[in-house]
Amino acid sequence: MATILVIDDDTSIRRSLRRILETRGHEVREADNGSSALEHEASADLDLVITDVYMPEMDGIEFLIRFRDIFPDTPIIAISGGGYATKEFVLQDAGLIGATETLSKPLTVDGVLNAVDRALG
User: Fold this and answer.
1) Dist CA 118 CA 56 (whole Å)
2) CATH number of the CATH domain containing 8
């Protein structure tokens, strides 16, 4: 199956996504912010990235921009529960910057799996 990087500063979200994705046989890597992801986890062997938008150190939007420059073809799913702007607004921006799919928190199992299936083609 696919190798998927999950980036979120919320440990419980990362764990939940790991469980959901591993039930489908995917290999899951984790990072707690965009900076850590780029430094330690981002590589050419990733099939998909799922990233939160609001995180410390490097948020999901900056991560998207930098990651797209290095790996333009890797699909990315941006997720958000909102923050200083409405989640719909930031997710729309993420789509314009290069996110393949977007999901609003709270996430559902079916929503995650359907987005992953679409992103992976």
Assistant:
1) 28
2) 3.40.50.2300
CA atoms of 121 and 111, how far apart (whole Å): 15
Q: What is the DSSP string of 25-81?
A: T-EEEEESSHHHIIIII--TT-SEEEEESS-SSS-HHHHHHHHHHH-TTS-EEEEE-
- Which residues of the chain are under the pLDDT cut of 70? 82-91
d(CA 65, CA 60): 9
Give the domain extent around 90. 3-120
Domain count, the chain: 1
Q: What is the value of pTM for the model shown?
A: 0.91
